[in-house]
Amino acid sequence: MKEETAIHVENLTKMFGDFTAVNAISFDVKKGEIFGFLGANGAGKTTAMKMLIGILTPTSGNADVAGFNVNTQPESIKKSIGYMSQKFALYDDLTVKENITFFGGIYGLTRKQINEKRYQLVEELELQEIVNELVSSLPLGWKQKIAFSVALLHNPKIVFLDEPTGGVDPITRRQFWELIYKAANKGTTIFVTTHYMDEAEYCDSVSIMVNGKIEALDTPKKLKEQFNAESMNDVFLKLARG
User: Locate the ABC transporter domain: which residues (predicted)?
Assistant: First the structure.
């Protein structure tokens, strides 16, 4: 794996019985870049991500994430990354403060580090009014922003975001992407899955999956030129039609 590469993937494949969910995908993600992993629901994005974060074992192929191998060092990968799941990111029955403390402990931070991080997070997101509120009482947009910040608590080299803006309004989506840019500017590599094609425009590099395969991979600008398209949505529609 090259020094400037955060993720290296080579012919990564996942089969469930006779069904091939991810079909021999290969790509590299540079350190500090925002990498968009796009595709329609069911294209294989989440399955691929689960292999990269050490939750699923590949059927074949190989990948290195943050310098660790997905086949032989999945536990080391989990300690080196941040992860924000589409369905579960925070405990609804805990307060914002309790969530930050709990996840800080899971990530191995000391009590002093947790207190410092909590103060920093509360100040940055202006959570003073809601820090002692149950997460279940918060709007989805707030939950997403707090969940992303919690995924960054232990200063991971790479953060994986699975459909982070699903179901939130356009203003909240824009605010969320501002948080992503801020993290990337500090050197964190961002790996984000989404089915919102307009969000591809915010990424440094983009791959588009169709039926388990990567059918396009480049910068948004070059992909639009390649497919003679005005937007990434047009690129995706052309790919989907075959």
Answer: 7-236
